[in-house]
Amino acid sequence: MNPSHQYSNNAIIVSDLHIGSRYFLYQECGRFLANIPEDHELILNGDVIDNPYSELNLPHQRILDIIARISHRQRVVWVRGNHDNGYIPQGFEKVEFKRFHTIGHRLLITHGYDFDDVMPRSQAFIKAFKLMHDLRVKLGAKPVHVAHYAKKWEFFYNVLRKNVMTNAVNCALENGYEAATCGHTHYPEDTVFNGIRYINTGAWTETPTFYLLITPDEMTLKKIDDSSGFRK
Question: Cα–Cα–Cα angle for 24, 81, 166, nearest 5°?
Fold first, then answer.
């Protein structure tokens, strides 16, 4: 594909890489990015970076470098998430930074934090929860991302993900979109709610990982093939 970035009907959407996190699956992500077809747009749906104020180690920096190289041969869109916080890495002048993105009227693409009414109102609880999680790890529990641990608290976690889904679907419905996709909740799912398809692409901080494949004919939530890093 030439540098003019003629827009195609093919796209690959991932969310919540959390580059810089100790839990970021950078090896799996590197294999995945290396196999993305050049005739597909790459859409990064928020929380690409974990902490914009921390220096990245070399393996994680290499993932950003790969994304920058991809943007010089095909379209790359970075939809901002709550962790990204205005972060723009060097060499990303070809990347389009947006608050949300759309594919015609087929799909509304937004990270999901703007639709989250739960976490902003629960900061005291979330802070205490994270402290408890950190203490568990220090006492010898298996290190896992806090979202992975939070899923054990099913009632609270279901309230969060259903809140994001409901608000995303309502936004899509009000604005004439057939479907909506988010990240943010670290919970991959593909469902229909109020007549609107809702797809969440999960996160790259725990396995399995997923991506959303868009073609002119369909939208498919795909699980990553561990052997190749990509399965069309």
Answer: 110
What residue type is assigned to position 163 of the chain?
N
For 45, list phi and psi in degrees, rounded to 5.
Answer: -95, 60
- CB 74, CB 39: distance < 8 Å: yes
Structure tokens at 208: 């399995």
Q: For the chain, percent helix, then strand, then coil, each to nearest 5? A: 30, 20, 50
Structure tokens that stand for 110 in this block: 């937004």
Q: What is d(CA 168, CA 158) in angstroms, rounded to the nearest whole number?
A: 15
DSSP reduced 3-state for 102: strand
pLDDT, one tens digit per residue, over 189-214 is 999 999 999 999 999 999 999 999 99
Alpha helices, DSSP H, located in the chain = 26-34, 58-71, 123-138, 146-150, 154-174
Contact of 109 with 13, CB cutoff 8 Å: yes
Q: How many beta carbons lie within 10 A of that of residue 155, not counting itself?
A: 6
d(CA 200, CA 211): 9
**pTM for the model:** 0.85
